[in-house]
Amino acid sequence: MERIERIHALHRILTAARYPVTVQRLQEDLECSRATVYRDLAYLRDYLMAPVVGNGEAGFRYDSSEGDRFELPGLWLSSEELHSLLAAQQLLLRSGGGVLSNALAPLQHRIEKLLDEHAGGRRVPVERVRVIPHRTRRLDETAFRTVATAVLDRKALSFEYRARSTDERTRRNVSPQRLTHYRENWYLDAWDHERDALRSFSVDRISGARIGETEARDVPDEELDRHLASSYGIFSGTPKGWATIVFSAKAARWVADEHWHSQQQGRFLPDGRYELKLPYSAGRELLMDVMHYGSEAEIVEPTVLREQAKSMLSLALANYDR
């Protein structure tokens, strides 16, 4: 639980309490240590001017003469909320000058107002917080609009697709299901009629998109999630198995806090290293992410994925032997 969430929860507990609340109970309800409880109580009393009374022996509560009148002042946003608002704001700014600029102006104003309200009424210098796009790809806006329209209008879609891995061009006829924004890029999840299967397409590789007259075939959400979200990465598919990766004690400081997959399993090893297990189907994206850690990561299982990693490393090393 983040501090902002704990402060809100602590305020609710003390507001509802008719009798002093023990530190032990606060630890259990807030899921934190004894020291953290005392720090949060001090923050609530000294910084937010809450009428906290009591001590560690008898417990804590709000002063009965002031507790009913006390309200939390504007509190700062959580990291996820701040990121979402600033990302939305910067997306709106990037669209400035286009046909949507006037229509989106009220939304921009509302975002700025939300930021001000949560900062206790003071102006928020948003220019001091940056949201930096990373490895975005050039996108054909005409193709994107056509794909998005087909998804929302539930119409069949045809397009030419140039696979990034083989550079092969093919004509695809699909029933679009979802648009997915993943790692700063857009993907189309669709039912491929020629292949009679679900596929994901990188929108930046789509050209000549045409919306058909026929209605798109709808695939149940459960089937979409099972096929497209059950394994690691954007091109997941039904899991082939589980991968086990062991990270060095140094890399463990980062990896232990990272979200790789909804079903991931992680644990620290006795020597400080970190073991991560997750389901995978197509290995290429997982391999690239593991290679990002270089010598700090080792694929332990399965053998086929481990051998693929060894081949990739050997090919990379060969570039430096010339």
Describe this entry's structure for a reader.
- The chain is of the alpha+beta class.
- Helices cover 38% and strands 24% of the residues.
- The chain is built from 10 helices and 11 strands.
- The strands form 3 sheets. It has a 5-stranded antiparallel beta sheet, sandwiched between helices. The protein has a 4-stranded antiparallel beta sheet with strand order 9-10-8-11. A two-stranded antiparallel ribbon has the order 1-2.
- A hairpin with a 3-residue loop joins β1 (52-55) and β2 (59-62).
- The longest helix has 18 residues, at 101-118.
- The protein starts with a helix and ends with a helix.
- The model has no long low-confidence stretch (mean pLDDT 84).
Concise overview:
With 322 residues, this protein is an alpha+beta fold. It is 38% helix and 24% strand. A five-stranded antiparallel beta sheet has the order 6-5-4-3-7, sandwiched between helices.
